[in-house]
Design a protein that fits this description.
About 45% of the residues lie in helices and about 10% in strands. The protein contains 7 helices and 8 strands. The strands form 3 sheets. A 3-stranded antiparallel β-sheet has the order 2-4-3. A 3-stranded antiparallel β-sheet has the order 6-8-7. The longest helix is centred in the middle third of the chain and has 16 residues.
């Protein structure tokens, strides 16, 4: 018999396991271009973005900086300015990098629904931070007291606000389930996965 745990959970509020994704919006000194800022000033702006949106990919930070300055595109000078700011934040340990994403040290990773985001890149599977995928998988398993491996991709995709689970998204989630199994954070018993 096929287990219906996830489907029952979905009806009772799978969506309650995630909150809406909120993009950082705040005032910046628009009287100067972003690349003209001192590195420490750009680092302060990047830190605010990471505090609000971390874990977050570098490319998304560049997009946010471009948006804060109402720029149509980000050229190499903006990319370089953001890269210098990120290096400064990593050097002074204000931010850490986990699987190519920037985040605050020792922060709790929240699962965020991307259904209503403005930035189109946030809805790309390859822009989902792995630590956030892990948090989503674990929260689904804890809320449903275990699940079959085949049930997890759809449930996790819903948490992120995806109505359909593309092959790329399914492969990505499956690979992270396997990573959690190998690391011992998930146990598989009689075809059922459970968070340890």
């Amino acid at each position: 018999l096929e287990r219906e745990t996830i489907l029952e959970l979905d009806n009772r509020g799978l969506t309650q396991l995630s909150g809406p994704y909120s993009e950082a919006v705040f005032g910046v000194p628009t009287n100067v271009d972003p690349h003209e800022l001192y590195t420490q000033d750009m680092a302060a702006i990047v830190l605010r973005i990471v505090e609000h949106e971390g874990p977050i990919y570098d490319e998304e930070i560049v997009t946010r900086v471009r948006t804060l300055w109402s720029k149509g595109r980000a050229g190499s000078r903006i990319h370089d300015a953001v890269a210098r700011a990120i290096r400064a934040l990593e050097t002074n340990k204000s931010c850490i990098r986990v699987d190519r994403c920037l985040m605050l040290p020792n922060c709790d990773v929240r699962v965020r629904n991307r259904a209503n985001v403005m930035s189109p890149t946030l809805r790309k599977p390859e822009h989902l931070p792995t630590v956030e995928i892990h948090a989503a998988i674990l929260s689904v398993l804890q809320a449903s007291h275990g699940a079959a491996r085949s049930e997890i991709p759809t449930a996790v995709a819903r948490l992120f606000g995806f109505q359909a689970t593309s092959p790329q998204l399914k492969t990505l989630i499956d690979s992270q389930v396997q990573r959690l199994v190998l690391s011992g954070r998930i146990q598989e018993m009689n075809g059922t996965l459970k968070a340890v």
